[in-house]
Amino acid sequence: MSQRSVFRSIVVSAVVLTVLGGSLPARAGARTAERPPVVTVGDAGVPPEVLAAARDLAARTRANAGPVRLTGGGARALDLPPINCLSQAQFPHASTQGMPGSVDGKAVTSCSAPVNQLQAQASLYEFVSGYGFLFSGRGALQYQMGSAGPVTSVAFAVCVGSPRYYVTTGYHFIVAPPYYSPPTVTVNTQTPVVTVSC
Description:
By secondary structure, the chain is mainly beta. It has a single domain, classed as Sandwich (Immunoglobulin-like), CATH 2.60.40. Helix content is 12%, strand content 44%. It is built from two helices and 14 strands, in the order H-E-E-H-E-E-E-E-E-E-E-E-E-E-E-E. It has helices spanning 3-12, 48-60, and strands at residues 19-22, 38-41, 71-72, 85-89, 93-94, 102-111, 115-128, 132-138, 142-147, 151-158, 164-175, 180-181, 184-190, 194-197. The strands form three sheets. Strands 2, 7, 8, 9, 11, 13 and 14 form a seven-stranded antiparallel β-sheet that branches. Strands 1, 4, 5, 6 and 10 form a five-stranded mixed β-sheet that branches. Strands 3-12 form a two-stranded antiparallel ribbon. The longest helix has 13 residues, at 48-60. The radius of gyration is 18 Å and the shape is elongated. The termini are far apart. This is Secreted protein. Residues 1-28 form the signal peptide. Keywords: Signal.
């Protein structure tokens, strides 16, 4: 398996609580600006320096989206169905709601059945040549108790006119209901490199 394939499997793979995670595009919205935002996702045309910096960021943030299974334990093990949760960092994009003139990225956590606690927190990173991906903004740590979600955190950064490279990372924390194992799961997700121009 190539290094690029390994990197993609780390930052974009699904987390099944059974936990599913990964990265999905944010919902598209209407924009009334004269010049529509340009968003490019993927490796095509992205300089190697930017891709290397994204791999470094994945290592620093411990992006670990992968299969995790919450199953029943103890005497009630056969009575408890697995709980499936989705943890995702959504592609950074020019904001169409909330804060005009900004770039935002979202982290979302949701489950197929209520769990004791769900948390999500988004962080936005911008590429600066010679320095790699630098922290640009962080959303509030959002949480819900006794819920299936979704829980959404939104990170914002000022959007400049020239095309820039961005990455959204997500921190997700799930506390399983009684009799489920493991009792807690932490998932870190990261989007691929996204080019945004406002």
